[in-house]
Amino acid sequence: MTPSLSPAQMSARIVRYGELRPCKTAFIDAHTPGSDQKENFTIIGGGVSESPDQHVHINDTPGFNIGAAGQPPKCRNSLHSHRTAEVFFVLKGRWRFFWGRWGTAGEVVLEEGDIINIPTGIFRGFENIGTDYGMIMAVLGGDDAGGGVIWAPQVIEDAKDHGLVLGDNGALYDSHKGQDLPEGVAPMPLLSEAELQSFPEPTTAEVVPHHVARYWDLMALADRQPAKVIGADACLRDRPGFEVDFLTRGSAPDAAETHDTHTVLMPMRGHWRLTWDGGTDVLNPGDTCLLPPGLPHHVAPAVTGEASLYRVRATDDPAGATLRT
Protein backbone atom coordinates (compact mmCIF):
# COMPACT_ATOMS: atom_id res chain seq x y z
CA MET A 1 0.00 0.00 0.00
CA THR A 2 1.41 3.38 -1.04
CA PRO A 3 1.80 5.64 2.01
CA SER A 4 0.36 9.13 2.16
CA LEU A 5 0.93 11.94 4.64
CA SER A 6 -1.31 14.80 5.68
CA PRO A 7 0.18 18.32 5.71
CA ALA A 8 0.40 18.11 9.50
CA GLN A 9 2.22 14.78 9.33
CA MET A 10 4.67 16.16 6.78
CA SER A 11 5.19 19.30 8.85
CA ALA A 12 6.39 17.10 11.70
CA ARG A 13 9.02 15.70 9.33
CA ILE A 14 10.37 19.13 8.30
CA VAL A 15 12.83 20.95 10.55
CA ARG A 16 12.95 24.64 9.63
CA TYR A 17 16.24 26.50 9.77
CA GLY A 18 14.65 29.31 11.76
CA GLU A 19 13.31 26.85 14.34
CA LEU A 20 16.56 25.01 15.06
CA ARG A 21 17.25 24.77 18.79
CA PRO A 22 20.95 25.04 19.66
CA CYS A 23 22.92 23.48 22.48
CA LYS A 24 25.98 25.36 23.72
CA THR A 25 27.15 22.59 26.06
CA ALA A 26 27.04 19.64 23.67
CA PHE A 27 30.70 18.62 23.85
CA ILE A 28 33.71 18.53 26.13
CA ASP A 29 35.24 21.74 24.72
CA ALA A 30 32.17 23.85 25.57
CA HIS A 31 34.15 25.93 28.09
CA THR A 32 37.52 25.90 26.35
CA PRO A 33 38.48 29.38 25.09
CA GLY A 34 38.19 29.51 21.31
CA SER A 35 35.51 26.81 21.28
CA ASP A 36 33.13 28.13 23.92
CA GLN A 37 30.76 29.92 21.53
CA LYS A 38 29.80 26.88 19.47
CA GLU A 39 26.18 25.98 18.88
CA ASN A 40 25.36 22.38 18.03
CA PHE A 41 22.11 21.21 16.47
CA THR A 42 20.75 17.66 16.39
CA ILE A 43 18.20 17.54 13.59
CA ILE A 44 17.54 13.87 12.79
CA GLY A 45 18.62 11.12 15.18
CA GLY A 46 20.46 11.43 18.48
CA GLY A 47 23.79 12.35 16.91
CA VAL A 48 26.89 12.29 19.09
CA SER A 49 26.15 15.01 21.64
CA GLU A 50 27.58 14.33 25.11
CA SER A 51 25.06 16.57 26.88
CA PRO A 52 21.52 15.83 28.10
CA ASP A 53 20.72 19.46 27.21
CA GLN A 54 20.87 18.67 23.48
CA HIS A 55 17.45 18.97 21.83
CA VAL A 56 16.67 16.33 19.19
CA HIS A 57 14.21 17.58 16.58
CA ILE A 58 13.36 14.22 14.95
CA ASN A 59 14.22 11.10 16.92
CA ASP A 60 13.79 8.62 14.07
CA THR A 61 16.98 7.58 12.33
CA PRO A 62 16.90 6.64 8.63
CA GLY A 63 20.25 4.82 8.76
CA PHE A 64 22.19 8.02 9.36
CA ASN A 65 22.01 11.18 11.49
CA ILE A 66 21.66 14.82 10.44
CA GLY A 67 23.10 17.63 12.52
CA ALA A 68 24.63 21.07 12.20
CA ALA A 69 27.18 23.35 13.82
CA GLY A 70 26.88 27.11 14.07
CA GLN A 71 29.87 29.21 15.05
CA PRO A 72 30.82 32.88 15.12
CA PRO A 73 34.05 34.02 13.45
CA LYS A 74 37.29 32.57 14.86
CA CYS A 75 35.42 29.86 16.80
CA ARG A 76 36.68 26.30 16.30
CA ASN A 77 35.58 22.74 16.94
CA SER A 78 38.34 20.77 18.68
CA LEU A 79 40.20 17.77 17.27
CA HIS A 80 38.20 14.56 17.40
CA SER A 81 37.56 11.38 15.47
CA HIS A 82 34.54 9.24 14.58
CA ARG A 83 34.06 5.54 13.92
CA THR A 84 31.54 6.27 11.17
CA ALA A 85 31.34 8.72 8.29
CA GLU A 86 31.14 12.47 8.85
CA VAL A 87 30.09 14.59 5.88
CA PHE A 88 29.73 18.39 5.99
CA PHE A 89 28.49 20.94 3.52
CA VAL A 90 28.84 24.67 4.15
CA LEU A 91 25.47 26.39 4.36
CA LYS A 92 26.76 29.78 5.46
CA GLY A 93 30.21 31.29 5.76
CA ARG A 94 33.78 30.26 5.07
CA TRP A 95 35.33 27.36 6.98
CA ARG A 96 38.75 25.79 7.45
CA PHE A 97 38.87 22.05 8.04
CA PHE A 98 42.08 20.60 9.45
CA TRP A 99 43.21 17.17 10.57
CA GLY A 100 45.92 15.08 12.20
CA ARG A 101 47.02 14.41 15.77
CA TRP A 102 47.77 18.10 16.31
CA GLY A 103 45.69 19.45 13.43
CA THR A 104 48.76 20.09 11.30
CA ALA A 105 48.76 17.14 8.87
CA GLY A 106 46.59 18.93 6.32
CA GLU A 107 43.82 21.46 5.81
CA VAL A 108 41.32 22.78 3.28
CA VAL A 109 39.13 25.89 3.10
CA LEU A 110 35.50 25.37 2.08
CA GLU A 111 33.14 28.00 0.73
CA GLU A 112 29.34 28.01 0.74
CA GLY A 113 27.95 24.89 -0.91
CA ASP A 114 31.23 22.94 -0.84
CA ILE A 115 31.09 19.45 0.66
CA ILE A 116 33.68 17.27 2.43
CA ASN A 117 33.50 13.57 3.24
CA ILE A 118 35.93 13.19 6.15
CA PRO A 119 37.42 9.69 6.45
CA THR A 120 36.89 7.73 9.63
CA GLY A 121 39.81 7.18 11.96
CA ILE A 122 41.57 10.55 11.61
CA PHE A 123 41.47 13.47 14.03
CA ARG A 124 39.68 16.43 12.51
CA GLY A 125 38.54 19.89 13.52
CA PHE A 126 37.04 22.94 11.85
CA GLU A 127 36.73 26.67 12.40
CA ASN A 128 34.75 29.56 10.99
CA ILE A 129 37.24 31.83 9.22
CA GLY A 130 34.59 34.10 7.74
CA THR A 131 33.40 37.46 8.96
CA ASP A 132 29.88 36.47 10.07
CA TYR A 133 28.13 33.67 11.92
CA GLY A 134 28.55 30.48 9.90
CA MET A 135 26.64 27.21 9.65
CA ILE A 136 27.69 23.79 8.41
CA MET A 137 25.27 20.91 7.93
CA ALA A 138 26.42 17.40 8.85
CA VAL A 139 25.55 13.82 7.91
CA LEU A 140 26.82 11.14 10.31
CA GLY A 141 26.83 7.48 9.31
CA GLY A 142 24.86 4.84 11.22
CA ASP A 143 21.78 5.01 13.39
CA ASP A 144 23.88 5.49 16.53
CA ALA A 145 26.59 7.55 14.77
CA GLY A 146 29.32 5.15 15.86
CA GLY A 147 28.69 5.42 19.57
CA GLY A 148 30.22 8.83 20.21
CA VAL A 149 33.30 10.96 19.75
CA ILE A 150 36.98 10.08 20.22
CA TRP A 151 38.83 13.18 21.45
CA ALA A 152 42.50 13.98 20.99
CA PRO A 153 44.13 13.76 24.47
CA GLN A 154 44.95 17.46 24.63
CA VAL A 155 41.27 18.33 24.19
CA ILE A 156 40.27 16.31 27.26
CA GLU A 157 43.11 17.81 29.29
CA ASP A 158 42.25 21.37 28.25
CA ALA A 159 38.56 20.81 29.06
CA LYS A 160 39.38 19.60 32.57
CA ASP A 161 41.26 22.85 33.20
CA HIS A 162 38.03 24.70 32.36
CA GLY A 163 35.63 22.63 34.44
CA LEU A 164 34.37 19.90 32.13
CA VAL A 165 35.11 16.20 32.65
CA LEU A 166 34.02 13.40 30.31
CA GLY A 167 33.11 10.20 32.10
CA ASP A 168 33.90 6.76 30.77
CA ASN A 169 30.12 6.40 30.33
CA GLY A 170 30.28 9.05 27.58
CA ALA A 171 28.51 11.75 29.65
CA LEU A 172 29.79 15.22 30.49
CA TYR A 173 30.05 16.57 34.03
CA ASP A 174 30.30 20.32 34.56
CA SER A 175 31.90 21.70 37.72
CA HIS A 176 30.38 25.08 36.81
CA LYS A 177 27.04 23.46 37.67
CA GLY A 178 28.36 21.73 40.77
CA GLN A 179 28.57 18.35 39.05
CA ASP A 180 31.11 15.66 39.94
CA LEU A 181 31.73 12.24 38.48
CA PRO A 182 29.15 9.85 39.99
CA GLU A 183 30.30 6.95 42.07
CA GLY A 184 31.45 4.14 39.84
CA VAL A 185 32.13 6.44 36.87
CA ALA A 186 35.78 7.10 36.02
CA PRO A 187 37.16 9.83 33.77
CA MET A 188 37.38 8.91 30.11
CA PRO A 189 40.90 7.48 29.71
CA LEU A 190 43.29 9.29 27.39
CA LEU A 191 44.43 7.45 24.30
CA SER A 192 47.85 5.90 24.78
CA GLU A 193 50.76 6.70 22.50
CA ALA A 194 50.42 3.23 20.99
CA GLU A 195 46.74 3.87 20.23
CA LEU A 196 47.52 7.29 18.77
CA GLN A 197 49.91 5.69 16.30
CA SER A 198 46.94 4.01 14.60
CA PHE A 199 45.41 7.34 13.56
CA PRO A 200 46.52 8.25 10.00
CA GLU A 201 48.16 11.59 9.18
CA PRO A 202 47.17 12.15 5.52
CA THR A 203 48.38 15.25 3.71
CA THR A 204 46.20 17.84 2.01
CA ALA A 205 47.17 16.42 -1.38
CA GLU A 206 46.01 12.97 -0.26
CA VAL A 207 42.65 14.07 1.14
CA VAL A 208 41.27 16.91 -0.97
CA PRO A 209 41.06 15.30 -4.44
CA HIS A 210 39.15 12.29 -3.12
CA HIS A 211 37.08 13.77 -0.31
CA VAL A 212 36.11 17.35 -1.31
CA ALA A 213 33.67 18.52 -3.99
CA ARG A 214 33.25 22.19 -4.88
CA TYR A 215 29.85 23.82 -5.20
CA TRP A 216 30.35 25.35 -8.63
CA ASP A 217 31.73 22.10 -10.00
CA LEU A 218 28.58 20.36 -8.77
CA MET A 219 26.40 23.08 -10.27
CA ALA A 220 28.00 22.36 -13.64
CA LEU A 221 27.72 18.59 -13.27
CA ALA A 222 24.06 18.85 -12.25
CA ASP A 223 23.05 21.07 -15.16
CA ARG A 224 20.85 18.39 -16.77
CA GLN A 225 20.76 15.48 -14.34
CA PRO A 226 21.41 15.11 -10.61
CA ALA A 227 25.10 14.94 -9.76
CA LYS A 228 26.17 11.91 -7.76
CA VAL A 229 28.29 13.40 -4.98
CA ILE A 230 28.96 10.49 -2.60
CA GLY A 231 28.45 6.87 -3.57
CA ALA A 232 30.07 3.89 -5.21
CA ASP A 233 30.08 5.61 -8.64
CA ALA A 234 29.99 9.25 -7.50
CA CYS A 235 32.40 12.20 -7.59
CA LEU A 236 33.59 11.19 -4.13
CA ARG A 237 33.63 7.42 -4.49
CA ASP A 238 32.71 5.97 -1.15
CA ARG A 239 30.07 3.79 0.49
CA PRO A 240 29.56 5.29 3.98
CA GLY A 241 26.05 3.94 4.63
CA PHE A 242 24.32 6.66 2.62
CA GLU A 243 24.56 8.32 -0.78
CA VAL A 244 24.41 12.02 -1.57
CA ASP A 245 23.06 13.62 -4.75
CA PHE A 246 23.01 17.27 -5.81
CA LEU A 247 20.05 18.77 -7.67
CA THR A 248 19.70 22.09 -9.46
CA ARG A 249 16.98 23.81 -11.45
CA GLY A 250 18.14 22.02 -14.59
CA SER A 251 18.23 18.57 -12.99
CA ALA A 252 15.12 18.64 -10.81
CA PRO A 253 12.91 15.65 -11.71
CA ASP A 254 10.03 16.24 -14.13
CA ALA A 255 7.67 13.80 -12.41
CA ALA A 256 7.04 12.33 -9.00
CA GLU A 257 9.59 9.84 -7.66
CA THR A 258 9.38 7.01 -5.16
CA HIS A 259 12.36 5.62 -3.27
CA ASP A 260 12.52 2.40 -1.28
CA THR A 261 14.71 4.00 1.40
CA HIS A 262 14.42 7.05 3.61
CA THR A 263 15.27 10.27 1.77
CA VAL A 264 16.41 13.56 3.29
CA LEU A 265 16.11 16.82 1.34
CA MET A 266 18.41 19.72 2.34
CA PRO A 267 18.11 22.87 0.21
CA MET A 268 21.29 24.85 -0.28
CA ARG A 269 20.04 27.73 -2.44
CA GLY A 270 16.58 28.85 -3.53
CA HIS A 271 13.10 27.78 -2.47
CA TRP A 272 11.92 24.29 -3.41
CA ARG A 273 8.31 23.22 -3.72
CA LEU A 274 7.70 19.74 -2.33
CA THR A 275 4.58 17.95 -3.53
CA TRP A 276 3.52 14.55 -2.22
CA ASP A 277 0.47 12.35 -1.94
CA GLY A 278 -1.36 14.45 0.63
CA GLY A 279 -0.21 18.01 0.14
CA THR A 280 2.42 20.55 -0.85
CA ASP A 281 4.92 22.71 1.04
CA VAL A 282 8.00 24.86 0.39
CA LEU A 283 11.50 24.02 1.63
CA ASN A 284 13.99 26.85 2.15
CA PRO A 285 17.79 26.94 2.52
CA GLY A 286 18.78 25.33 5.81
CA ASP A 287 15.55 23.33 6.14
CA THR A 288 15.75 19.55 6.52
CA CYS A 289 12.97 17.21 5.36
CA LEU A 290 12.75 13.47 6.11
CA LEU A 291 10.67 11.51 3.57
CA PRO A 292 9.60 7.94 4.37
CA PRO A 293 10.23 5.03 2.00
CA GLY A 294 7.58 4.47 -0.63
CA LEU A 295 6.13 8.00 -0.60
CA PRO A 296 5.63 9.41 -4.14
CA HIS A 297 6.95 12.96 -4.13
CA HIS A 298 8.14 15.69 -6.43
CA VAL A 299 10.53 18.53 -5.66
CA ALA A 300 11.29 21.49 -7.92
CA PRO A 301 12.35 25.14 -7.59
CA ALA A 302 9.42 27.29 -6.49
CA VAL A 303 10.73 30.63 -7.78
CA THR A 304 13.26 31.87 -10.32
CA GLY A 305 16.95 32.29 -9.54
CA GLU A 306 19.74 30.04 -8.35
CA ALA A 307 18.50 26.76 -6.89
CA SER A 308 20.44 23.82 -5.45
CA LEU A 309 19.62 21.01 -3.07
CA TYR A 310 21.47 18.13 -1.42
CA ARG A 311 19.60 14.82 -1.27
CA VAL A 312 20.70 12.04 1.10
CA ARG A 313 19.45 8.45 0.88
CA ALA A 314 20.25 5.47 3.07
CA THR A 315 22.13 2.47 1.64
CA ASP A 316 23.02 -0.97 2.99
CA ASP A 317 26.74 -0.16 3.04
CA PRO A 318 28.78 -0.02 6.27
CA ALA A 319 28.63 3.39 7.95
CA GLY A 320 32.30 4.28 7.49
CA ALA A 321 34.20 6.53 5.11
CA THR A 322 37.36 5.06 3.66
CA LEU A 323 40.51 7.13 3.36
CA ARG A 324 41.26 7.25 -0.37
CA THR A 325 44.64 8.37 -1.68
From TrEMBL:
Enumerate the spans annotated as AraC-type arabinose-binding/dimerisation domain.
257-307
Q: Does the keyword Acyltransferase apply?
A: no
Q: Which UniProt keywords apply?
A: DNA-binding, Isomerase
Q: Name one GO biological process term.
A: regulation of DNA-templated transcription
Q: Name one Pfam family in it.
A: Cupin_2
Q: Does the keyword Isomerase apply?
A: yes
Sequence ranges assigned to domain Cupin type-2 in this UniProt record: 73-136
GO MF terms, alphabetically ordered: DNA binding; isomerase activity
Could you tell me what this protein is called?
Putative mannose-6-phosphate isomerase
Source organism (scientific name): Thalassobacter stenotrophicus
Q: Organism classification, top ranks?
A: Bacteria, Pseudomonadati, Pseudomonadota, Alphaproteobacteria, Rhodobacterales
